[in-house]
Specification:
Blueprint lengths: L13 H4 L12 H10 L11 E5 L7 H7 L4 E6 L2 H14 L4 E5 L12 E6 L8 H14 E12 L3 H16 L5 H18 L6 H14 L3 H8 L9 H9 L3 E6 L12 H10 L3 H12 L3 E8 L17 E3 L3 E2 L12 E5 L2 E5 L2 H13 L4 E2 H11 L7 H20 L4 E3 L17 H9 L3 E2 L5 E2 L3 H7 L8 H14 L6 H4 L8 H15 L6
Parallel strand pairs: 1-2, 1-4, 2-3, 4-5
Antiparallel strand pairs: 5-7, 6-7, 8-12, 8-13, 9-10, 10-11, 14-15
Length: 528
């Protein structure tokens, strides 16, 4: 990778004093961005061979897992915090990952020398920088994005931030008398507790809203409180104003990273019809939906203005995608006869259909879960399951279109996951289970691991102990041998759940190890 411009010393930077938690953000994953681009008619570069730039990469918690998973892609991250970057460089050295560069640089340092990118990610940056830096970010996306490249920019938005900004003003007023960041955080939390204890909530809309926000901040870590609410700059904007500014730089609105947030059909029918009637275009619909939801935060995707977008969400685009779904039949058996309605449910999500091909497809997906499958594989298996494989070419074409339309609609209601390429995890337990070196390192040193869906997975002590030996060189029995002494000595306790299903004469440690590895499988942590 070519050498990039460097940044002068930034040791006094605020993120050095209070480091921001460096997480993976699944909504920024280039696979997700590619899906949204494909849905609206673009031809994005798939993540397997892409160049990705992240602005504000912190310690690389978002980029490093991607770089390890996709060795033929190239990743560049910039940040001002030398402390966080040093942590990222340490991780890269331990893992010997070569296809990523973490650079100490200001946004204003990024120019043509960085080259072109298929994806540009700016999560938690836009609202927290000065106006001229925001404008530069737009220009940067225009100049560095490939023709079908996608930029992800998150930002605080109105109307929701009008109310949250009220709380921010209180906290900034109270904490400005303190200079130490840790003291500012403690004082901010103290004021929030005081407000929560002092303002009545019964028959008091102000008190009820205040308590709701306080509950949210109680669950947030110190870095969020310090860098979001107490930040020197935090300038929310209305969605349509953000889009107008992007358009002035030759960009256009593509989508949100979450299709469900764009679906007006998720409102009541009367609300949806009114939105369609009063809105002239997608920008107005999105703005009015922000008003209805009191939205506070957006994760918006931009592309070049000269790209021709197709917003019809045609069923044919499903043929280019992969699908997965945890929904299962509500009853023990599914009648696959055309016209007999069946219902599939999971975690508050329900999908119903009387279509034979759709019902069969959900059976196929539930049996394959957690693996995701190409559309054509789903269709072929479903047609065989429902005895439809001998249908005429016209009937087959209609069924394919019906299934594609249904799956995209399910994506908009979060009933299915959609991906642009093959899964990178292993959906079954092999003889010699393996996890990525990064996940094993995180299990040993952090309180979380990054799974193959780019999510945070939290493991109990026993599962973390098991991960140490899941490098693909040991069988399950050999992993159990490594842990047996610790279990016998009582320095490592077997979890209670597998003990309830312990077969007669079974080896306790081996049984618990098998259970733990199954947990790793369902946490999308196993690789081939």
């Amino acid at each position: 990778m070519s050498e990039l411009p460097s940044k002068p010393n930034a040791s006094d930077y605020a993120y050095d004093v209070v480091p921001y938690q460096s997480w993976p953000f699944p909504q920024t994953h280039p696979d997700r961005l590619a899906v949204m681009a494909k849905l609206f008619g673009m031809k994005p570069t798939l993540i397997g061979r892409a160049r990705v730039l992240e602005i504000g990469c912190a310690a690389g918690g978002n980029l490093i897992p991607l770089a390890q998973t996709y060795p033929e892609s190239e990743f560049v991250g910039i940040d001002l915090s030398q402390k966080e970057l040093a942590e990222g460089h340490s991780t890269l050295k331990q893992l010997d990952i070569k296809n990523i560069q973490l650079q100490c640089a200001n946004i204003l340092d990024v120019d043509h020398r960085f080259g072109k990118f298929d994806y540009i990610i700016a999560h938690g940056v836009f609202s927290w920088v000065a106006n001229e830096v925001q404008e530069y970010l737009f220009r940067l996306c225009k100049s560095l994005l490939q023709p079908h490249g996608v930029a992800y920019i998150s930002f605080n938005t109105y109307p929701g931030w009008h109310m949250r900004g009220m709380i921010r003003s209180m906290l900034v007023y109270h904490t400005k008398q303190f200079t130490d960041p840790r003291e500012q955080i403690a004082q901010a939390r103290g004021l929030l507790r005081f407000l929560g204890d002092s303002v009545p909530t019964k028959d008091n809309p102000y008190g009820a809203y205040l308590q709701q926000e306080i509950d949210l901040f109680d669950q947030s870590d110190d870095s969020y409180l310090f860098h979001d609410l107490l930040a020197g700059i935090n300038e929310p904007t209305l969605f349509h104003e953000f889009v107008e500014r992007a358009e002035s730089h030759g960009l256009q609105y593509l989508a949100e990273s979450d299709l469900a947030s764009m679906a007006s059909c998720n409102f009541d029918k009367q609300v949806d019809e009114t939105l369609q009637r009063i809105s002239q275009d997608i920008i107005q619909i999105e703005q009015y939906m922000d008003f209805l939801r009191n939205r506070t935060f957006r994760q918006t995707l931009l592309c070049h203005r000269d790209v021709s977008l197709d917003r019809s969400l045609t069923p044919a685009v499903a043929a280019e995608l992969h699908f997965a779904s945890p929904v299962r039949a509500e009853s023990d058996s599914v009648d696959l006869i055309e016209g007999v309605r069946a219902r599939f449910v999971a975690s508050g999500i329900a999908v119903g259909s009387a279509s034979a091909i759709i019902k069969a497809a959900h059976v196929v997906l539930s049996e394959a879960w957690p693996e995701w499958l190409p559309f054509e594989t789903i269709f072929e298996r479903a047609a065989e399951l429902a005895s439809l494989q001998n249908a005429s070419s016209e009937e087959t074409s209609l069924m394919r279109m019906k299934l594609g339309e249904h799956l995209i609609r399910c994506f908009a209601s979060r009933a299915v996951d959609v991906h642009s390429s093959n899964p990178t995890f292993q959906a079954f337990v092999s003889q010699r289970p393996a996890m990525t070196p990064l996940a094993r390192l995180q299990a040993e040193t952090l309180g979380y691991v990054t799974n193959q869906k780019h999510e945070v997975a939290k493991l109990d002590e026993f599962c973390r102990a098991v991960t140490r030996w899941c490098d693909g060189s040991r069988t399950i029995d050999q992993i159990a041998d490594q842990l047996r002494d610790a279990v016998v000595k009582g320095t490592l306790a077997c979890p209670s759940r597998p003990m309830k299903t312990l077969p007669p004469d079974a080896n306790v440690t081996t049984h618990c190890v098998r259970w733990a590895i199954d947990q790793l499988r369902f946490a999308f942590l196993l690789i081939g």
